Amino acid sequence: MAEEKGLKKPVKLKSELAAMLNATELPRTEITKKLWDYIKANKLQTKTENGAAENAGKYIVADSTLLPIFKNTKSTSKSGKLTDLTNMKEGETINMMQMAAVVGANIEK
């Protein structure tokens, strides 16, 4: 069987994400799926920035489980946009487009 490559290749998770997902290695696609499963199951989406969780919308509300994972994130995209969530507080939100940066920041390089 051929070795998985790209987004389907398993990567080593940092401790906070590993504890949340109960795994030490997963492909990026599976990490994203499991994070979204958690977000949806706990109704952590909102339509407005820093709004109350209402189970719909493009913003994700940081609860006590997601906060340590989000706070690991400080990265610059290829387009030069900085995503710095290191000072985030519980109840604040991120735009769902920042999830790639969150996943990238929570894997071992």
Span of the ends, CA to CA: 25 Å
- Identify the strand order in the major beta sheet: 3-4-7
SSE topology string? EHEHEEHEEEH
Shape: globular
Number of helices: 4
Helix content: 25-40%
Q: In terms of per-residue confidence, which ranges show pLDDT below 50 for 5 or more consecutive residues? A: none
Structure description:
By secondary structure, this protein is of the alpha+beta class. The chain is 29% helix and 18% strand. It has four helices and seven strands. The strands form three sheets. Strands 3-4-7 form a three-stranded antiparallel β-sheet, with no helix packed on it. The longest helix is centred in the first third of the chain and has 14 residues, at 28-41. It starts with 9 loop residues before the first strand and ends with a helix.
Task: Provide a short characterization of the protein structure.
The chain is of the alpha+beta class and 109 residues long. The protein has helices spanning 15-21, 28-41, 67-70, 99-105; strands at residues 10-12, 25-27, 45-46, 59-61, 74-76, 82-84, 93-95. The chain contains four helices and seven strands; from the N terminus they run E-H-E-H-E-E-H-E-E-E-H.
List the helices and strands and how they pair.
Layout: E1 10-12, H1 15-21, E2 25-27, H2 28-41, E3 45-46, E4 59-61, H3 67-70, E5 74-76, E6 82-84, E7 93-95, H4 99-105
Antiparallel strand pairs: 1-2, 3-4, 4-7, 5-6
Give the key terms.
109 residues, alpha+beta, 3-stranded antiparallel beta sheet, two-stranded antiparallel ribbon, 4 helices, 7 strands, 29% helix
